[in-house]
Automatic annotation (TrEMBL):
CDD domains: SCP-x_thiolase. Residues 34-208 form the Thiolase N-terminal domain. It comes from the Bacteria. Residues 282-410 form the Thiolase C-terminal domain. This is Thiolase family protein. PANTHER family: ACETYL-COA C-ACETYLTRANSFERASE (PTHR42870), ACETYL-COA C-ACETYLTRANSFERASE (ACETOACETYL-COA THIOLASE) (ACAB-3) (PTHR42870:SF7).
Length: 415
């Protein structure tokens, strides 16, 4: 059944720039951040990766698992790790025995959804301190696409063949047609992000490329090439969220979760393409809706001026450009010129993905959580070599499924 009326209402709401926003009952602070080094292969099992992330975040927060009231597990398709219902496997590894624990799964957006669930727990007053933790072993799954491609309708879409890469190649072609993007623009995004990734000690890919390197890399699905694409990464990440009144118990300058937004897209790809499409596949109105809901909740009036760092979920270089537009970082007719002028560089006036982003590490279950973690590190002034001066507020986003689930989190300082 087509979701025409519901979608039109949703689209109208996000385009009005006045989407519905939530109300926070009490402040939620990020008290600890932990990441492992991301890589292609690992000699650690899934529970060992979760254990490593848990240990790292507890050390960062200078606390123990006893101070954690509940655990939210960030876990995308468990077929990648080869064990069904993998959350059962890690109860002991993350110290959740005897505590409330739940798993969250929204595809690539899983990490940001898990952070939002934890934030809701704390904001509501149900729990004071919640740990979000997850890991993935994409680098050891053999062929992750075989698993990911099972999201498609088996009677029509899967037989096309439609998969997670060709879907986004369609998006790239439509974006080219509508906005004038070229393969060189895509390559420029890749060059920028990989240069940033060399400054990030956790990044899987730590190698600089030239535009010529990217254009000359193996074609995956035109116009997407190998160096336009994210790696298959293994690794773990964790965060500790606590009530604002507890920040004095933890060692670091707190980063507060100021705004949350989430919206979903229609399932059928055919509803996004062709003469009878309900939305344009070049854009993602649901991402716009999620971002503007987060802005409203955070009390942001002018996001281009009030936000100093942007961690946008973009597993392919073309996705970064449409995400830039969809979160309102610039007007659609400005995007390519701003890219050419270096506005989105780490030293530009609108820095995007200073960590290297998803192009430099993609452990699917926690990739979107890492966007929030990196945004928080920028606000705390703890991002190391890829730190941007004067960050008071940052935005993180996540995208999951067949470009279907979108999340946004605004992270800010104590003001």
């Amino acid at each position: 059944m087509r979701a025409s009326s519901a979608w039109k209402a949703s689209e109208e709401r996000c385009r009005s720039t006045k989407p519905e926003g939530a109300r926070v009952v009490r402040e939620v602070a990020i008290a600890g951040i932990g990441q492992t080094k991301y890589s292609g292969l690992t000699d650690q099992s899934y529970p060992e990766l979760v254990r490593a992330a848990t240990k790292t975040v507890l050390e960062d927060a200078e606390t123990t698992i006893d101070s954690v009231d509940a655990v939210v597990v960030s876990m995308a398709p468990d077929a990648i790790i080869g064990v069904s219902h993998g959350e059962r496997w890690i109860v002991d590894a993350c110290g959740a025995a005897g505590k409330p624990m739940m798993r969250v799964h929204t595809g690539g957006a899983t990490g940001i959804s898990a952070v939002q669930v934890a934030a809701y727990h704390v904001a509501s007053g149900m729990y004071d301190t919640v740990m979000v933790v997850g890991a993935d072993r994409v680098g050891e799954s053999g062929d992750a696409q075989t698993i990911l491609n099972r999201i498609w309708d088996p009677f029509y879409e899967r037989a096309m063949p439609l998969n997670t890469i060709t879907m986004l190649a369609f998006q790239a072609v439509r974006f080219m047609e509508k906005y004038g993007m070229t393969e060189e623009h895509m390559a420029a995004v890749s060059v920028k992000d990989h240069k940033n990734g060399c400054k990030n000690p956790y990044a899987h890919v730590q190698k600089e490329f030239t535009v010529e390197d990217v254009l000359g890399s193996r074609m995956i699905s035109w116009p997407i090439k190998l160096y336009d694409s994210c790696p298959s990464s293994s690794g773990g990440a964790a965060m500790i969220l606590t009530a604002g009144e507890n920040v004095g118990r933890f060692p670091h300058k707190p980063a507060y979760i100021r705004g949350l937004g989430h919206a979903s897209e229609t399932y059928w790809m055919g509803d996004r393409m062709g003469p009878k499409k309900e939305v344009d596949h070049a854009d993602s109105p649901a991402l716009t809706q999620a971002a503007y809901a987060a802005y409203k909740m955070a009390g942001i009036q002018d996001h281009r001026r009030e936000i100093q760092a942007w961690e946008l979920y973009a597993p392919f270089s073309n996705i970064e450009l449409h995400a830039i537009q969809d979160v309102g970082l610039c007007e659609p007719d400005e995007t390519l010129k701003l890219l050419e002028d270096g506005a989105f560089d780490i030293d530009g006036d609108r820095p995007v993905n200073p960590s290297g982003g998803v192009l430099c590490a993609n452990p699917i279950s926690v990739t979107a959580m890492v966007r929030v973690a990196e945004a928080a590190l920028q606000v705390q002034g703890r991002a190391g070599e890829h730190q941007i001066d004067g960050v008071k507020t940052a935005l993180a986003t996540g995208i999951g499924g067949d470009h279907q689930h979108f999340g946004a989190v605004v992270v800010g300082d104590g003001r």
